[in-house]
Design goal:
The chain is an alpha/beta fold. The protein has 15 helices and twelve strands. Among the domains are: about 60 residues; about 250 residues, Type I PLP-dependent aspartate aminotransferase-like (Major domain) (Aspartate Aminotransferase, domain 2). The N and C termini lie far apart (about 55 Å).
């Protein structure tokens, strides 16, 4: 068995390999999925592996894994690498604390709570607010839905569902809402998908009309999921107008800010979530706009009692010292839970709130550069809108699914496609704040050069 010191030496060597590889080859050499097990020795065997062979295999894995931190990765709603956050994540791995009790987490509890307190203050939640760190945006939405269900039917957590509850979300919202309705016992058929306007934002008048219809038919409106940054267009639902409706009918309002909720840190773009202080819960992912390593999701609740009522459970074998405010397992979904707060704290602590503001503003500036390039070039068609870091476009009427797949398979750049209404398009996401203007312009350059060298692509017309 190796000791930790020798393994850290190996780790540093592998990091150097990865960083150099990212510079030389920003897009990893793709291995066909049906050839994966023949290309790299991923087998697990009874006997130990020789150290040099082990190192060689690790290098093979590093080189062939998609490189999400480079200036040619635009495929997901995350990208880039903030070094101070990486430092925090590495320390969290070495410390290996679980976050359910103060006894085993110590000051890490304070670190998590400080992030939550500061976040609550920024969005305008009151003194009774609090939160937790779920495993991701989908889990944040699920926990919010469970709290909404329990608030509407206080006997539910003891006796099960007894009311015909319905929930509401935009047609452009995250797919987790359907799964969560199933998990929470509400049922997928009891989701009301509200129409979005021409820019992808939920239409409040349609929401209220649907609520009135459901009340008339004997249903119990329970939960509205508003979105701060829809998955495709990056649109922001009008929270203030939606809050007028949820307050009127006594419905829980959750704002899913997994993608773009981090605009709360920007003086320039915080207006996109006006009314956030009127919500019952709000979530954002620091592993998206703020560039911390996956996963780092924060769920905030306007009234911490709701979090405790839905998720607390006594366990004498676990909660043996200190009070509930320091035993975070009382308000989390999991028992054993890795420390996802430290990496965000090391980033925030090192750059300050002003530094986080810069990260957000930089992404919108890059989006403006990309949007302007598309609008000024007759070979491109723009499908997205201002105040978004999703730039949706097509180039020379080439089918976007064909183009994106070809770019990926030829290791040119990694970018995805999406659809809205009757259009399918390339979706460029400027979420990597380490990028600069020349990186965005280079993205378009590599696409144009690739198409020029691949003439058969131009013969495929845009399809849905």
């Amino acid at each position: 068995m190796s000791d930790i010191n020798s393994d850290l030496v190996l780790f540093n060597e592998l990091v150097e390999v990865l960083i150099n590889e990212e510079k030389k080859h920003p897009v990893a050499d793709r291995i066909d999925s049906n050839k994966l097990y023949d290309s790299i020795d991923l087998s697990l065997n009874a006997s130990a592996m020789v150290d040099e062979d082990f190192k060689s295999v690790l290098k093979d894995v590093l080189v062939s894994t998609p490189k999400t931190a480079t200036n040619l990765f635009f495929n997901q709603l995350f990208g880039g690498r903030q070094s101070k956050a990486v430092l925090g994540d590495l320390l969290a791995v070495l410390l290996n604390n679980s976050m359910y009790t103060y006894k085993v987490a110590g000051p890490q509890v304070g670190i998590e709570q400080e992030i939550i307190r500061q976040s609550c203050a920024i969005i305008g939640y009151g003194s009774q607010s609090n939160g937790t760190f779920p495993t991701g945006g989908s889990m944040s939405n699920y926990m919010a839905l469970v709290m909404a269900r329990d608030a509407k039917d206080t006997k539910c957590r003891l006796e099960g569902m007894s009311k015909p509850m319905v929930i509401y979300t935009s047609k452009e919202s995250h797919y987790s809402n359907a799964k969560n309705a199933s998990f929470a016992g509400i049922g997928r058929n009891n989701i009301r998908y509200i129409q979005a306007d021409s820019e992808g934002r939920m239409i409040p008048t349609n929401l209220e009309q649907q609520i009135i219809t459901d009340l008339r038919e004997g249903f119990v409106p329970t939960y509205v999921n508003a979105t701060a940054g829809t998955t495709v267009l990056g649109a922001f639902d009008p929270i203030d107008k939606i809050a007028n409706i949820t307050e009127k009918y006594g419905i829980w309002l959750h704002v899913d800010g997994a993608y773009c909720g981090s605009v709360i840190f920007s003086d320039t773009f915080k207006h996109l979530v006006n009314g956030i202080e009127r919500s019952d819960s709000f979530s954002y992912n620091a592993h998206k706009m703020l560039g911390t390593p996956l996963t780092c999701s924060i769920l905030l609740v306007n009234d911490k009692k709701m979090l405790h009522d839905s998720f607390s459970n006594e366990a004498d074998y676990l909660y043996q010292t200190d009070g509930d405010d320091f035993n975070l397992g009382k308000t989390s979904f999991q028992c054993g839970r890795r420390n996802d707060a430290l990496k965000f704290w090391t980033l925030w602590k090192s750059v300050g709130t002003n530094g986080l503001k810069h990260l957000i503003d930089q992404q919108f500036e890059l989006a403006d550069i990309a949007r302007e390039y598309v609008k000024s070039n007759p070979d491109y068609t723009l499908y997205s809108f201002e105040d978004s870091i999703s730039i949706c476009f097509n180039y020379k009427n080439i089918d976007p699914t064909t183009l994106c797949t070809a770019l990926y398979e030829n290791q040119i750049t990694v970018v995805g496609f999406g659809a809205f209404e009757d259009n399918t398009f390339v979706r460029l996401v400027t979420i990597n704040a380490n990028n600069e203007k020349h990186d965005i312009l280079n993205f378009f350059k590599v696409i144009e050069e690739f198409v020029e060298k691949t003439p058969h692509l131009t013969r495929v017309e845009v399809g849905v």
